[in-house]
């Protein structure tokens, strides 16, 4: 797991590019036991997760990642914490967000086991 | 692991209360294999982690937690994502932060295996 930083960066770039261009294709990154907590709403399973992401009330979105930190987490996992900004189509103000992923390895690579997303509002 | 939300909330309350009142006592929450990534700086082991936290250039700090999300992560882990604000002594403006923890169970309870901290700057 020496290249966990590299794996995390490639994953993050792929994730947000896919989110911004073709949300349906995110299904390939989740499995039946994957979990998403999106603004406190808990969802389980690839199908339900992608359904949720596709139901979000905007057609266009652009993510920018500002920081990507990764740590090995157990024998087959990588914890990734992202901070960044997103701009929803039709809005002119970006919002800060944070997202934590727990990636787990499988034969063909990594999938998203845990996924927690939060908008971060200005502190004061 | 039905009460992972409860465990996460109790941990988070205890963590920041201890951080704000007696940083040295955080040592009890980490083990020799624990990892902290603090603003991109990686540190391993309870002793080095607490040394780092104690060396931060402020005497007083107050954390406020705005959101605490938790998910079970494997058989013996809990992923926790926190967002909140912190106010450093002598400053008058709070800063937003995000912190991801991977808690792992041991005989006596849970310890912090992964810990990633980031200040979140306003998006624009």
UniProtKB/TrEMBL annotation, chains A, B:
Family matches, as InterPro entries: NTF2, NTF2-like_dom_sf, NTF2_dom, Nuclear_transport_factor_2_euk
Q: What is its main location?
A: cytoplasm
Protein keywords: Cytoplasm, Nucleus, Protein transport, Transport
Which residues does the UniProt record annotate as the domain NTF2? Answer: 7-119
Q: Which BP terms in the Gene Ontology apply to this protein?
A: mRNA transport; protein import into nucleus
Subcellular location per UniProt equals: Cytoplasm; Nucleus
Which superkingdom does the taxonomy of this entry point to? Eukaryota
Per the record, GO CC terms? cytoplasm; nuclear envelope
Pfam families in alphabetical order: NTF2
Mind telling me which Gene3D superfamilies this protein's record contains? Answer: 3.10.450.50
Reported function: Facilitates protein transport into the nucleus. Could be part of a multicomponent system of cytosolic factors that assemble at the pore complex during nuclear import. Has a role in nuclear-cytoplasmic transport of proteins and mRNAs.
Q: What name does the UniProt record give this protein?
A: Nuclear transport factor 2
């Amino acid at each position: 797991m020496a290249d966990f930083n590299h794996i995390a960066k490639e994953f993050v770039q792929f994730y947000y590019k896919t989110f911004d261009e073709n949300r349906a294709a995110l299904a390939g990154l989740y499995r039946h036991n994957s979990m998403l907590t999106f603004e406190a709403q808990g969802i389980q399973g690839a199908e339900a997760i992608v359904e949720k992401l596709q139901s979000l009330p905007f057609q266009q979105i652009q993510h920018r990642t500002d920081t990507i930190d990764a740590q090995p987490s157990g024998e087959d996992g990588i914890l990734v914490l992202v901070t960044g900004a997103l701009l929803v189509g039709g809005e002119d103000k970006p919002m800060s967000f944070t997202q934590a992923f727990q990636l787990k390895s499988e034969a063909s690579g990594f999938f998203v086991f845990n996924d927690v997303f939060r908008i971060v509002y200005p502190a004061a």
